[in-house]
Amino acid sequence: MRYVDEYRDPALARSLAAEMRSLVTPGEVVRVMEVCGGHTHAIYRHGLEELLPQEVELVHGPGCPVCVIPMGRVDDAIAIAETDGVTLATFGDMLRVPGGRGSLLEAKARGADVRMVYSPLDALALALAGQEPDRHVCFFAIGFETTAPATAVTLLRARAERVSNFSIFCNHVLIEPPLRAILETPGLRVDAFVGPGHVSSVIGTDAYRFIAEEYGRPVVVSAFEPVDLLQSIAMLLRQLAEGRCEVENQYTRVVRPEGNARAIAAIAETMEPREDFEWRGLGVLPRSALQVREPFAALDAERLFALPGARIEDPKACRCGEVLTGQIKPWECGVFGTACTPERPLGTCMVSSEGACAAFFSYGRLRAPREEAPVGA
Exposed (0-12), middle (13-18) or buried (19+): which is 148, by Cβ within 10 Å? Predict the structure, then answer.
């Protein structure tokens, strides 16, 4: 297939839906976790859940890069932004993420120089512009392995050009540790995984073999169009029906088993796993995030600035952590759609363009689905 319309073909979608109905056992629920927040939004934007058999329950995973950043790291970013002579550059999603001292947008209203950029190279361009040569520009780097290569390239370019008024506040996280944490959570059942497409374009499908080999769960890496996702879920159901447990690749037009060697090499040259990192909803996970390597210390904001480094508990009413780990659906949170909305979010899942709460709110899933007739009735 070559064009977007082919990936939204109604006849093909109906055919896949019929195939899925033939692959489930009436009354036996299969819990499928879509790891990526981009998949969550695609599912509810296109109404795909309505095409699935009643036996298939979708649960939402930790693959939203904005959602997993804890409040303490937001406060660290605010501390950098409020330092005299500093401009903090960040992606738009991070501006409204709440920390213990409010959000970056509120810090900007108080007078901090906070600017939205589309890439770390845009932030470097601010430092190189030369209009204020004494002003320091710090980029608030977030994301899984998807966005880490762009940060790596920026570090390499900044060092090559000997830029002295630029730094990176590194908050890149890794996909394997949170998946292991979820698989080892007592009482949390996930039967199969829809693997993230964007992350996999960097790290490849082989990176998920541990899920199949160590935990006995099938994985299918998926693209993002409606037919892509329906086909991926059908592939998972086919594995389960046949008693297989493998890592399969639906996104063959982009993703390779070994990933992108040049991107992986750039990350390895500039960054390394840190001892531990705090995740929203998952707590502190060892070797689950990246930090800037010693040869790039002059570009590392954590070495250049005195940061609070506090660990701040989420608001008690906010249940983002449970949403991120597939324990509850957004509408099961008591403040969802009332005290917590995209305009006034209490938690990160309502802020991000990949957050599950934002997806449910945007596409009208504000409450539990109506009770349906028993399966097979």
Answer: buried
Residue that the structure tokens 């007592």 belong to:
186
Q: How far apart are alpha carbons 113 and 161 in whole angstroms?
A: 24
According to DSSP, the β-strands at 113-116 and 136-143 are: unpaired
**Residue partners of 167: CB distance under 8 A and separation at least 6:** 136, 137, 138, 139, 299, 300, 301, 304
pLDDT digits (tens, 9 = 90+) for 254-282: 999 999 999 999 999 999 999 999 998 88
Sign of dihedral through CA atoms 231, 234, 238, 240? positive
Per the listing, tokens 């329906």 go with: 230
Distance in angstroms (rounded) separating the CA atoms of residues 29 and 24: 8
The tokens for 184 are 């080892």
**60, containing H or E segment:** strand 56-63
Tell me how far apart the alpha carbons of residues 295 and 241 are, in angstroms, rounded to a whole number: 51
Q: What phi and psi, each to the nearest 5 degrees, are found at residue 115?
A: -130, 145
DSSP 274: -
Q: What domains lie within the chain, and their CATH numbers? A: 9-363 (3.40.50.11740)
pLDDT > 50? residue 346:
yes
